[in-house]
Amino acid sequence: DELVERIRQKIMVLYPGGVEAHHFHIHSYGVHKELTFHIKVEKDMSILQAHQIATKIEAAAFTASSPKVS
């Protein structure tokens, strides 16, 4: 899926080599879309830090001003 690939590329820009995202699902409800996914992070990372990473990825996924990937 093209959208999932663009999201993966944005993740690589945001977290080069530091976050592994997988199991993407994009849910469409009319014009509203929701993204769910899993991330793999370092074992000593706090839940708060992991949640902040996931939130940043969610924001970048559907935002035109998020990191540009060519």
Write up this protein.
With 70 residues, this protein is an alpha+beta fold. 40% of the residues lie in helices and 27% in strands. The chain is built from 2 helices and 2 strands; from the N terminus they run H-E-E-H. The chain has helices at 2-14, 47-61; strands spanning 20-29, 32-40. A two-stranded antiparallel sheet has the order 1-2. Strand 1 (20-29) and strand 2 form a beta hairpin. It is globular. It starts with a helix and ends in a 9-residue tail after the last helix. Residues 65-70 have low confidence and may be disordered.
Helix content: 40-55%
SSE ordering: HEEH
- Which consecutive residue ranges, at least 5 long each, have pLDDT under 50? 65-70
Helix count, DSSP H or I runs of 4 or more residues? 2
Set out the fold topology.
Elements: H1 2-14, E1 20-29, E2 32-40, H2 47-61
Antiparallel strand pairs: 1-2
Care to give the gist of this entry?
The protein is an alpha+beta fold and 70 residues long.
Structure keywords:
two-stranded antiparallel sheet, 70 residues, single chain, alpha+beta, disordered C terminus, 27% strand, 2 strands
